[in-house]
Amino acid sequence: MDKNLKRMATMHRMQVTGLELFYKNGYYNTSIDDILKSLSLSKGAFYYHFQSKEDFFVSIVQNLIVRKVYSLLIEPIEGKEDPFQAIEKCFENALETAEHNEMDYGFVLSNFISEFNRRNTVISNYLMDIYKVWEVNLVSILQKGKSDGFVNRHVDSEGVATYLISSYMGVRTLMVQGNCRNLRYKYMQQLRHYFNSLAQKEAV
Amino acid sequence: MDKNLKRMATMHRMQVTGLELFYKNGYYNTSIDDILKSLSLSKGAFYYHFQSKEDFFVSIVQNLIVRKVYSLLIEPIEGKEDPFQAIEKCFENALETAEHNEMDYGFVLSNFISEFNRRNTVISNYLMDIYKVWEVNLVSILQKGKSDGFVNRHVDSEGVATYLISSYMGVRTLMVQGNCRNLRYKYMQQLRHYFNSLAQKEAV
DNA sequence: ATTTTTACCGACCACTTAGTCGGTAAAAAA
DNA sequence: TTTTTTACCGACTAAGTGGTCGGTAAAAAT
Known about the structure:
2 copies of one chain form a homodimer. The first copy, chain A, has about 200 residues and is mostly helical. Chain A has 2 domains: about 1-50, Arc Repressor Mutant, subunit A (Orthogonal Bundle), CATH 1.10.10; about 60-200, Tetracycline Repressor, domain 2 (Orthogonal Bundle). Chain A is built from 9 helices and no strands. In chain A, helix 1 crosses helix 4 (about 55-75) and helix 6 crosses helix 8. The N and C termini of chain A lie far apart (about 55 Å).
């Protein structure tokens, strides 16, 4: 552990900068040299710590993306009473982060899922695993919401989870082109509206 | 016109194959040589007809993507009586195409919007123009639906349009990883549910 | 019949890419 | 103190990349 400190620190620096550039320019459009240049490190350093570009990206997924998705999209809604309120707040926060910070990890996820789709199945699988955890988490909080009387019993929790994630990913795709504030406002309004219909008696 | 026939035919062949490969492998991950090889054409032929890779892609957007989005996502809902029914059918068709054919143009659009985002503003703008036309069309049919008594007057048409496009783009992102049938089913179910709430009296 | 244009060929260029490899200074282990 | 390991350097390679350019055969225009 102790003796690995320097190693870990350098690897972490590379991962953070790597994710930043991969996110900004895309994986295939970002070279290792780009990352190295912005860190003032050499090829040797990179291939000392990582086996390949792919291996490097996988380590980013497992060390940075997984954890951030957990802390931003999963933990905030876990164990909350009212699922709709919890999800609404969580999405609102995430979209606000997206607006200012321009790197919320729900979108990082969907962005990379798109990019690697059918181009790199290894990476795709790692990304889809995260998506599945997110989905399962939404489903379970909705199910619990049924017992607690917040969610109509006829609601299809899996369907709702899919719909929620879909719309979130979609609106984030649109937000990157600007007009974020307006999009966020419109999106949240419709989300509330949708939730209303799931709490009422008439449900599909 | 007549004398341009051969020219047009070759350009069209290049565009069709180009779109296929760009869609499958991504723009930055597809070389002109890849396209030329699969057409048994040479560099000379390419640069005789197009000025650059970017110019080539723009021509694909304007000749193929625009038209397909029109014929698949815009015209089918134009002039229909009940907006919800029209949109529902249209989306259902598009997602079915996606399932079998694996290239529906609503997704082609969102896919490329993601890829070019912040990487090529010229192309991004062409793509966003198409998105805007789609959105405007949805808004106007929803507005008309209000006059005709299908849509609740308190509904925010622009918000609904945004939400619809977002969710559609999102679900398509997820569909490419497989499990299409199930995703489509769940998505359509929730869409109908959402529409129900917009037709009723209580609206946001 | 001659000239010009069209549509294409493919060698070539400058540059970028992921990845290799021999070397090395400093730190840790012996 | 000597040896070994760690963490890194940077020149190099082979395989692409987008794009240029001189050439050419067939068709069209004159």
